Backbone:
Protein backbone atom coordinates (compact mmCIF):
# COMPACT_ATOMS: atom_id res chain seq x y z
CA UNK A 1 0.00 0.00 0.00
CA UNK A 2 1.34 3.42 -0.95
CA UNK A 3 0.24 7.01 -0.51
CA UNK A 4 1.44 9.90 -2.63
CA UNK A 5 0.88 13.61 -2.80
CA UNK A 6 -1.21 14.74 -5.76
CA UNK A 7 -0.23 18.37 -5.10
CA UNK A 8 2.68 18.46 -2.65
CA UNK A 9 3.39 22.21 -2.76
CA UNK A 10 0.85 24.99 -2.22
CA UNK A 11 1.19 28.72 -1.69
CA UNK A 12 -1.46 31.23 -0.68
CA UNK A 13 -1.79 34.73 0.68
CA UNK A 14 -2.69 35.29 4.32
CA UNK A 15 -6.40 34.49 4.64
CA UNK A 16 -6.43 32.24 1.57
CA UNK A 17 -7.64 28.66 1.14
CA UNK A 18 -5.61 25.68 -0.11
CA UNK A 19 -6.18 21.95 -0.36
CA UNK A 20 -3.77 19.03 -0.26
CA UNK A 21 -4.84 15.74 -1.82
CA UNK A 22 -3.37 12.31 -1.12
CA UNK A 23 -3.93 9.29 -3.36
CA UNK A 24 -3.74 5.72 -2.08
CA UNK A 25 -2.74 2.77 -4.27
CA UNK A 26 -2.45 -0.93 -3.57
CA UNK A 27 -4.65 -1.05 -0.48
CA UNK A 28 -5.59 -4.63 0.31
CA UNK A 29 -7.72 -3.92 3.37
CA UNK A 30 -9.53 -1.08 5.12
CA UNK A 31 -7.13 1.75 5.88
CA UNK A 32 -6.96 5.05 7.76
CA UNK A 33 -5.33 8.31 6.68
CA UNK A 34 -4.18 10.66 9.43
CA UNK A 35 -2.89 14.18 8.72
CA UNK A 36 -0.07 15.60 10.86
CA UNK A 37 1.00 19.25 11.06
CA UNK A 38 4.71 19.54 11.75
CA UNK A 39 4.45 23.19 12.87
CA UNK A 40 1.52 22.48 15.23
CA UNK A 41 2.99 19.18 16.41
CA UNK A 42 -0.36 17.41 16.28
CA UNK A 43 -2.75 15.36 14.20
CA UNK A 44 -5.41 17.39 12.44
CA UNK A 45 -9.15 16.99 12.50
CA UNK A 46 -11.99 19.28 11.47
CA UNK A 47 -11.55 22.63 13.18
CA UNK A 48 -11.71 26.36 12.52
CA UNK A 49 -8.92 26.31 9.90
CA UNK A 50 -8.73 22.64 8.88
CA UNK A 51 -11.25 20.31 7.30
CA UNK A 52 -11.04 16.80 5.90
CA UNK A 53 -13.22 15.24 3.24
CA UNK A 54 -15.21 12.10 4.06
CA UNK A 55 -12.37 9.73 3.08
CA UNK A 56 -9.72 11.99 4.67
CA UNK A 57 -7.83 12.08 1.37
CA UNK A 58 -8.17 15.87 1.07
CA UNK A 59 -7.05 18.34 3.73
CA UNK A 60 -8.37 21.88 3.23
CA UNK A 61 -6.85 24.81 5.07
CA UNK A 62 -9.06 27.91 5.20
CA UNK A 63 -8.12 31.42 6.31
CA UNK A 64 -4.43 30.42 6.21
CA UNK A 65 -2.27 32.22 8.75
CA UNK A 66 1.51 32.43 9.31
CA UNK A 67 1.45 29.61 11.93
CA UNK A 68 0.09 27.28 9.21
CA UNK A 69 3.31 27.53 7.17
CA UNK A 70 5.32 24.33 6.98
CA UNK A 71 5.10 20.63 6.43
CA UNK A 72 2.04 18.40 6.57
CA UNK A 73 2.21 14.62 6.55
CA UNK A 74 -0.45 12.26 5.24
CA UNK A 75 0.13 8.97 7.09
CA UNK A 76 -1.59 5.75 6.08
CA UNK A 77 -2.07 2.48 7.93
CA UNK A 78 -4.37 -0.49 7.86
CA UNK A 79 -7.18 -0.25 10.43
CA UNK A 80 -5.93 -3.42 12.16
CA UNK A 81 -2.36 -2.10 12.57
CA UNK A 82 -0.87 0.61 14.73
CA UNK A 83 2.28 1.44 12.76
CA UNK A 84 2.14 3.41 9.53
CA UNK A 85 2.68 1.70 6.20
CA UNK A 86 3.58 4.80 4.21
CA UNK A 87 3.45 8.59 4.27
CA UNK A 88 3.97 11.55 1.97
CA UNK A 89 4.90 15.13 2.71
CA UNK A 90 3.12 18.35 1.70
CA UNK A 91 4.49 21.89 2.03
CA UNK A 92 2.50 25.11 2.55
CA UNK A 93 3.78 28.65 2.11
CA UNK A 94 1.71 31.65 3.21
CA UNK A 95 2.69 34.91 1.51
CA UNK A 96 2.15 38.39 2.88
CA UNK A 97 3.42 37.58 6.32
Residues:
Amino acid sequence: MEIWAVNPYESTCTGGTVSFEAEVTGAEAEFVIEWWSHSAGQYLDDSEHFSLDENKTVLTITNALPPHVGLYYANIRYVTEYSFRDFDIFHLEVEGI
Summary: The domain at 2-95 is CATH 2.60.40.10 (Immunoglobulin-like). The longest strand covers residues 86-95.
